[in-house]
Amino acid sequence: MQKLRQGDDVIVIVGKDKGKLGKIQKLVGDQKVLVEGINTVKKHQKGNPNLGTSGGIVDKDMPINISNIAIFNPKTKKADRVGFKYLDDGKKVRFYKSTNDVISP
To answer: pLDDT (tens digit, 9 = 90+) per residue, 38-57?
Structure first.
């Protein structure tokens, strides 16, 4: 079970986008994630008339290292750490370490 999953709200803790919030769109390998609105770059894209795409300068989200982000706790409005515990019915869940609240799937 991974500490961060697709759809989690995260906050950037270091880098040019420090303090920005976003939602994980995709996990890229073991150590990188794609977060919407974070680590955007300008890409010069060539048009393709066969596919109907136009050329120009487009904004593109690039992957960011998992060590540069932390899960966002909506109760405390801060970055938090993730822990694992078993519920009474034997189900393994993630929880916020600061408040002991279970992270909703």
So the answer is: 999 999 999 999 998 889 99
Tokens 């995260």: give the residue. 10
Residue 14 domain-assigned (yes or no): yes
Whether residue 87 is contained in a domain is answered as: no
Contact 10, 2 (CB under 8 A): no
What integer is the mean pLDDT of 9-36? 96
C-alpha 5/C-alpha 83 separation (Å) is: 13
Residue type, 11: I
Longest dimension (CA), the chain: 59
Position 70 in a domain:
yes
Q: Which residue type sits at 10?
A: V
- Number of folded domains that form the chain: 1
